[in-house]
Amino acid sequence: MKYILMMNGTKANFAEYAKWSKKDMEANVAFMRTFNxxxxxxxxxxxTEGLGWPDQARxxxxxxxxxxxxxxxxxxxxxxxxxxxxxxxxxPEQAYKIAARAxxxxxxxxxxxxxxxxxxxxxxxxxxxxx
Amino acid sequence: xxxxxxxxxTKAGVDTYVAWSxxxxxxxxxxxxxxxxxxxxxxxxxxxxxxxxxDQAIVVRGQKAGLPITDGIFPExxxxxxxxxxxxxxxPERAxxxASRIxxxxxxxxxxxxxxxxxxxxxxxxxKS
Lengths: 131, 129
Description:
The structure holds two protein chains of two kinds. Chain A is α+β, with helices and mostly antiparallel strands.
């Protein structure tokens, strides 16, 4: 079963993160690298990506003639996807355990960030779904 | 440049979609499938995934006695990621163009949904190393 573990944050959360000391950021990134390596060693790793900052996010709809209408204005409360992992596991509980490890990544001063990680099953692409 | 196109919706929005007729859903999926096919042929397609319904979403935060602390309660207004596409394109404008085509996939009665698609660049900082 494939699960996606999503890390979300508001613009305010991102702004706080940007103020972390270099040392704190390096510790966090080192943790993430080790974490990803562990997932590979455990045979559950499928993919991980980090996304560009929210201030570069655009919402796209189509105009009347089919040309894209882009908009960069979002409500302050909007949660932006910061990044995700996809893991292939035997049970949802195993996915939750992995999410808890990601949640414990160190924050300022090395204390666990305990950031919320949203966990959802991945159903596969439309063709996988037979649609 | 890699871009991710994110389709999101509230629980109420997903409930509306589930109530579509089979014909409307088939027509919608046919368009998405043809977009995937075209992107594959143009070499821009990297991946697409659909996620399980929001009522199965769980939030995990830290742990207690070695066990994850889980919670399935979200604000009504929360937008859940429903699915995404990852494309490899030359310009952001091309990513917007693809997003707008997904946005006009037909909804009930064949009318374009005009669902907003969020477009974000993917940073190559990811742990491929």
